Amino acid sequence: MTMKRFLLTAVLAAAVAVTGSVAKADFVIDNFTTPSPASSYTLGTTVGSIHTATDVLPGGITRKLTVTLLGNDFFAGTPATGEIGTTSSFSRYSLSTATGATAFTSLAYSYTTAQDYSVSGTILRFTFLGADLNVPFSVIIGDGTTTSTVVGVATAGPGIYSLPLSGFSGVNLANVQSVTLVLNENTTAGNPASTAVKSADITLTDVRVTTPDQPAVPAPPAAILLLAAAPVLGLARIIRRRRATEVVA
């Protein structure tokens, strides 16, 4: 390496050390690529029928799926079916409820290592590829001791829904150990059947936590950059003096 390149590299390294860098967190909780191939389910016709499945996801996350039949006005046929995982076309979780039947889904995620979601501006985002109008949902965040719940309604059908984590009060967002997404139920209402929508069809493709870009540290004035480079420049002078001495000798 020539002396000029050495000095340039050293000055840039010093500048980076002084200025810092931009940080962003985009933590994918579930993109439904697990299992592959996808697993399908069918609920029985008896009210109270439950389907459960547990999968380990990338990033040290355990997902427990629970689908519960709340009501069935028609005792013939299949009240609810669905699929989770990677299909031939895409990855998703789906719930298809037969006419007159009522069912809800719980996707409970637990972390092996607690996550810090306390950065200001962090949001929980989930994406519906399809959703019947007015399907309620609940999001429950837990820190191992306390839980906090925020509820909403899929008023626009398909789309991305974002919930600011600042709205989850009373829970330690610096020590999040679980996130649960409940579809077609307002868990704060007390009676699931009173809030669930009959014949609800839902397709979910993504659940993640996103933290916006943090402000970059302003570039330092030239004087600070020169100060950062001073030790390197001093080293260069010492090297030149030694070489001059060797030539004279």
Distance between the termini: 26 Å
Number of helices: 3
Characterize the biggest β-sheet: 7 strands, antiparallel
Shape: globular
Number of strands: 13
Mean of residue pLDDT? 81
The sequence of SSEs as H and E is HEEEEEEEEEEEEHEH
Q: Would you state the CATH class of the largest domain?
A: Mainly Beta
Portion of residues in beta strands equals: 35-45%
Unreliable stretches (pLDDT < 50, length at least 5) are: 1-23, 216-239, 244-249
CATH-defined fold name of the largest domain: Jelly Rolls
Which architecture of the largest domain would the CATH scheme give at its second level?
Sandwich
State the secondary-structure class.
alpha+beta
